[in-house]
Design a protein that fits this description.
Largest sheet: 8 strands, mixed
Shape: globular
CATH superfamily: Gcn5-related N-acetyltransferase (GNAT)
CATH topology: Aminopeptidase
CATH architecture: 3-Layer(aba) Sandwich
Strand order of the largest sheet: 1-2-3-4-5-6-8-7
Order of helices and strands: EEHHHEEEHEHEEH
Helix content: 25-40%
Number of strands: 8
């Protein structure tokens, strides 16, 4: 869905994802990085633009480009999706960053912005996160952030190579948010 939400803090700026971000994003991805996604790896600017347009056309999904706040460089992308305001819940996902930003402050800063908006602005009771069970980097990042494991949905998704994948689900509930926020703020120091 089209949106105009912009979030900024701790060195990152989240802006509505647009086709203008396609050249920078396609330069960041490869098959290994994209493995946790359900679509084939975009290898051209046109393929990435089509991926972006699909994200924009998905109801209840707010897709963002993740930028360096000071420089404007494109670091990756993330989304709110399956947003159900009437149920006070949303998921965060479709997240990927270029390898230059792995292990640094980009992911915790981005998650702090998204979670703050979900809990503090939207009043969510629940934020869910999920990842393919083979995506050990994402699973570790979700747990390090404070996501509580809920279980694994077996044969839940089809990977780009056609194989079936299991999905690990995590959530953060509103009463858990203050501790998660404190942990993310401490990591960003």
């Amino acid at each position: 869905m089209q949106h105009d939400l912009v979030l900024e803090g701790n060195g990152v700026r989240l802006v509505p994802l647009g086709v203008e971000h396609a050249p920078a994003l396609v330069a960041l991805v490869d098959d290994a990085l994209w493995r946790g996604m359900t679509s084939p790896t975009p290898t051209t600017t046109d393929e990435m633009a089509a991926t972006i347009i699909a994200a924009q056309q998905t109801p209840a999904r707010l897709a963002f480009a993740v930028l360096g706040a000071a420089t404007g460089e494109v670091r990756g992308s993330t989304s709110f999706y399956d947003w159900a305001p009437e149920l006070a819940r949303v998921e965060i996902g479709h997240t990927y960053y270029g390898r230059d930003w792995w292990g640094g402050t980009t992911n915790p800063a981005t998650k702090l912005l998204l979670l703050s908006h979900a809990f503090d602005a939207w009043g969510c009771a629940r934020v869910a996160l999920r990842a393919d069970t083979e995506n050990t980097r994402s699973l570790a990042a979700i747990q390090r952030m404070g996501g509580v494991p809920e279980g694994v949905l077996r044969s839940h998704r089809v990977r780009p190579d056609g194989s079936r994948g299991d999905t690990a689900y995590f959530s953060i509930l509103a009463p858990e948010w203050p501790a998660v926020r404190a942990g993310l703020e401490a990591r960003l120091g």
